[in-house]
Amino acid sequence: MSDDRADEHVKTVYAHFGLALYLAQVLEHGLANALMCTELLPRRAGKPVPRKEWEAEFDMFMDQQFEQTLGRLIRGLKNATSVPTELEELLTDALKTRNFLTHHFFRERAEVYMSRDGREKMIHELERAQRLFEAADDKLMETVKPLREKFGLTDERMTPIEEEYLKSFKKDL
User: Fold this and answer.
1) In Å, what is the CA distance from 1 to each residue of 7, 9, 10, 97?
2) DSSP line for 12-60
3) Dihedral over alpha carbons 17, 21, 27, 33 (to 10 degrees)
4) Is pLDDT at 169 greater than 50 in this prediction?
5) Is the pLDDT of residue 24 over 70?
6) Coil, strand or helix: which one is 77?
7) Are the beta carbons of 74 and 31 closer than 8 angstroms?
8) 4 pLDDT above the threshold of 80
9) How far is Cα 75 from Cα 169, in angstroms, rounded to an integer?
């Protein structure tokens, strides 16, 4: 194999690794949003405050969630609301997978990384991790949807807000 093809294959491993960790972070953000719906909104319901005060409280709450580990976010969700068994299993698998990728993946795959077949196995393993993180996030969103809708955060209300927010960026995605 030419060096260029080997270099591209190596880059593909790194790209899949990066995508897997990105999707793990998407799940973490989803958990922070879920905690907002299960903790912050119920605590503030029926207690109107000026917009600036609400925004400051919201920002502080979300900042606190973003400081948490994935495991703590999962525990926080389980403490805040009933978590369906399927979601709990997905979150448990996602936590184990994320921790493995972050702390052990390349070290434990150092020898197989040296061959194209080994890197292909690594890519397939990373693709499974990507699907797991996406499935966990999808199930989380499905589970939280009725909770957020209870507070008026319906898809119909959120879509225009999201679209307006995205318009503020110069993007090519």
Assistant:
1) 10, 11, 13, 32
2) HHHHHHHHHHHHHHHHHHHHHHHHIIIIIHHHHTT----HHHHHHHHHH
3) -150
4) yes
5) yes
6) helix
7) yes
8) no
9) 34
Q: How far apart are CA 17 and CA 52, in angstroms?
A: 40
**pTM of structure:** 0.90
Residue 151 has which token pair? 């507070």
d(CA 125, CA 120): 9
Mean pLDDT to the nearest integer, 158-165: 88
Only one residue has tokens 């061959």, namely 115
Task: Find the mean pLDDT for residues 36-46.
Answer: 90
User: Is the Cβ–Cβ distance between 24 and 135 less than 8 Å?
Assistant: no
* pLDDT value, residue 45: 82
* Chain length of the chain: 173
Please give the structure tokens belonging to residue 6.
């080997």
CB distance 73 to 65 below 8 Å: yes
The two counts, helices (H) then strands (E), for the chain are 8, 0
